[in-house]
């Protein structure tokens, strides 16, 4: 059979290759011979064989992002184009799958009809949350919005900002407000970036591509998730020329895969590596566990979500490849392999902040994984105050970022006043994808406008002018550890049997 790219094959030709010894499928009108790749498919061969000799586009789109199949298969697997004029009706079982997809994609769990408001009517981060709650699939909403066990840390992350007060200065000329900032030497139109968040395609078909395009339009930086739904190259190519990207890394238990990924990131022009260190064991996210996992996979890590006896938690099931042996001694290896600036994401104490600096990292992210890992861990802003109290020299030795619970321009300003170079914002941008690229741009503009307004009302005209005197933290100061004596963890040798 010819493999000429322009060669057209009939549906009858496709149907003849319908078993585990001779398996062809059609995806987006292109026919592929995947016989030799059945056993290596992360989701198992059975799901592919269900569509052997037929059009698997609907099932493929439910799980994968466009372009993955071309990247994963060698050119010789491509057999030609499917003649759409001869495509017959799908078999009954495939019709059922299509109906299920149509019923679940983008629908609310409510029995009432929900009309998504026009984008211009959304004027706050909370507005995007409300839209996402009513338009995402139940599983997508559970995956994005869930946090560990009782959601204590998740709520603390936001609540602590409300307890820190601003101390405005008046009678200043605030006609102009400058929000631009350099982050790891990369220009940004505002002191915030899009935090890495997995599987953005659950919110919109363009997923991380829409985030990249929105960042290009708004002059922001995107930290691409290791569990992104699109290939790393596709996300970067979706941006504009010279657009800076950072890459979030989960170290794979198969270190060779991490080595390959780091080298690829450097070759593609990634500017920094954000090593996530607070989720080597995924937290128990009960809302996510209660709903059966949708069959999705990451284009970068290859992780696949399914279901087991513990539930259908996508975060847990897709995080099984993460190396639990990761330690501080691995930082030099990551630095040498990537030859890029390294940022440690997930710092939750002054002691670990000091340790990170000792290992020569260029930045740290004070983060508790959005409350998704260890519940009742302290909010990130308290860790920021802890650095001021115990090791203020940190702010002169590396860049410090904060994420978790940031929903307002005043939140951003408070973090900057307490020494943060920039803040990371994750969930809100996932929710903004309910409107695609335009949603990303609109949310960016809302946050920028709120920040500028807050700056002017506080009496400053440049983000670099924000300092500790701008805030009153006395309502939370008593919660901040007073010395390194609070770093009470002691490693003990294993007891002899």
TrEMBL record:
Its cofactor is heme b; FMN. Its EC number is 1.1.2.3. It is an enzyme of class 1 (oxidoreductase). Keywords: Flavoprotein, FMN, Heme, Iron, Metal-binding, Mitochondrion, Oxidoreductase. It comes from the Eukaryota. One of its GO terms (molecular function) is L-lactate dehydrogenase (cytochrome) activity. It catalyses: (S)-lactate + 2 Fe(III)-[cytochrome c] = 2 Fe(II)-[cytochrome c] + pyruvate + 2 H(+). It is found in: Mitochondrion intermembrane space. It holds the Pfam family FMN_dh. GO terms for cellular component: mitochondrial intermembrane space. SMART domains: Cyt-b5 (SM01117). Residues 6-83 form the Cytochrome b5 heme-binding domain. Residues 117-476 form the FMN hydroxy acid dehydrogenase domain. SUPFAM superfamilies: Cytochrome b5-like heme/steroid binding domain, FMN-linked oxidoreductases. Homotetramer. In the C-terminal section; belongs to the FMN-dependent alpha-hydroxy acid dehydrogenase family. This is L-lactate dehydrogenase (cytochrome). It comes from Letharia columbiana.
């Amino acid at each position: 059979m010819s493999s000429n790219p322009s060669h057209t094959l009939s549906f009858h030709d496709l149907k003849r290759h319908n078993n585990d010894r001779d398996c062809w499928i059609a995806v987006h009108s292109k026919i592929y011979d995947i016989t030799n790749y059945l056993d290596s498919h992360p989701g198992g061969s059975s799901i592919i064989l269900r569509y052997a000799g037929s059009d698997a586009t609907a099932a493929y789109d439910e799980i994968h992002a466009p372009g993955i199949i071309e990247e994963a298969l060698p050119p010789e697997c491509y057999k030609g184009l499917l003649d759409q004029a001869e495509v017959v009706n799908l078999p009954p079982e495939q019709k059922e799958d299509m109906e299920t997809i149509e019923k679940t994609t983008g629908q609310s769990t409510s029995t009432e009809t929900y009309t998504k408001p026009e984008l211009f009517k959304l004027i706050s981060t909370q507005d995007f949350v409300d839209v996402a709650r009513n338009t995402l699939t139940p599983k997508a909403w559970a995956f994005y919005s869930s946090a560990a066990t009782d959601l204590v840390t998740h709520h603390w992350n936001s609540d602590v900002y409300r307890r820190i007060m601003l101390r405005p200065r008046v009678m200043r000329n605030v006609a102009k407000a400058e929000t631009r900032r350099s982050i790891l030497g990369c220009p940004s139109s505002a002191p915030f970036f899009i935090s890495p968040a997995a599987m953005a395609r659950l919110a919109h078909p363009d997923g991380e591509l829409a985030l990249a395009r929105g960042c290009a339009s708004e002059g922001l930086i995107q930290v691409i998730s290791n569990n992104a739904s699109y290939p790393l190259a596709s996300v970067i190519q979706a941006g504009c020329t010279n657009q800076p990207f950072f890459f979030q890394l989960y170290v794979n238990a198969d270190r060779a895969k991490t080595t390959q990924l780091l080298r690829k990131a450097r070759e593609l022009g990634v500017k920094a590596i954000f090593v996530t260190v607070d989720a080597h064991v995924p937290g128990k996210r009960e809302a996510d566990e209660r709903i059966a996992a949708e069959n999705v996979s990451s284009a970068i890590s290859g992780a696949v979500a399914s279901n087991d006896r513990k539930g259908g938690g996508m975060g847990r099931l897709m995080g099984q490849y993460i190396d639990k042996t990761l330690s501080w001694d691995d930082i030099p290896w990551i630095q040498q392999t990537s030859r890029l600036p390294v940022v440690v994401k997930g710092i939750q104490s002054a002691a670990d902040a000091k340790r990170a600096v000792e290992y020569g990292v260029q930045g740290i992210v004070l983060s508790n994984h959005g409350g998704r890992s260890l519940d009742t861990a302290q909010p990130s802003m308290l860790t920021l105050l802890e650095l001021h109290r115990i090791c203020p020299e940190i702010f002169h030795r590396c860049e410090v970022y904060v994420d978790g619970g940031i929903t307002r321009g005043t939140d951003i300003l408070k973090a900057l006043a307490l020494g943060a170079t920039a803040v990371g914002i994750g969930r809100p941008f996932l929710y903004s994808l309910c409107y695609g690229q335009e949603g990303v741009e609109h949310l960016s503009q809302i946050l920028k406008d709120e920040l500028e307004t807050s700056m002017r009302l506080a009496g400053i005209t440049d983000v670099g002018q924000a300092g500790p005197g701008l805030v009153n933290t006395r309502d939370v100061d008593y919660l901040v550890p007073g010395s390194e004596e609070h770093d009470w963890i002691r490693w003990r040798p294993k007891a002899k049997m």
